[in-house]
Amino acid sequence: xxxxxxxxxxxxxxxxxxxxxxxxxxxxxxxxxxxxxxxxxxxxxxxxxxxxxxxxxxxxxxxxxxxxxxxxxxxxxxxxxxxxxxxxxxxxxxxxxxxxxxxxxxxxxxxxxxxxxxxxxxxxxxxxxxxxxxxxxxxxxxxxxxxxxxxxxxxxxxxxxxxxxxxxxxxxxxxxxxxxxxxxxxxxxxxxxxxxxxxxxxxxxxxxxxxxxxxxxxxxx
Length: 221
Fold this sequence. Notes:
Mean pLDDT: 97
CATH class: Alpha Beta
Shape: globular
Largest sheet: 7 strands, mixed
Number of strands: 7
Order of helices and strands: HHHEHEHEHEHEHEE
């Protein structure tokens, strides 16, 4: 099997189960035109996030890593009426693209795009004394994933769902001798989960148009 075959299967799934969507297509096109890296979730992965957030009955969602807002659109559309999504992005340029994509999708009032280091923005969120988030999606730099996850737990409540993307790293997560900072970050996440009594979690390997990787799904007890 090869990435070409995985991509063909992804396309088959998308054609069958992910209807064409002008706002999502425009978000991808605008992100590419702006020179953003093509590291957004695939359409079928976006649909999975949407379904998981709906299953949770989410009124409040936190996203760490906005990029061009493609996954933000998927998640925001899963919110209950009146719900809100807060998304954190390091790059002001990326955030500008995301805001325009969200505006085009009719979600400018639903999504709060905040710019800065997530390790500074997350403590600030905690100081706001807001209601816990029902759903958290973490898709940012992997070195800091353990810390992002810790904050996600603090900002959640019993039953909240946390999804962390890119946690298999082409299988390198199982390499104990790695010196790659990104791999060590996701290994640190797994060590957190191994020893965390208040979290029930699993990690799933995936293949597809984005290659070989995986995601971690956790529920706060």
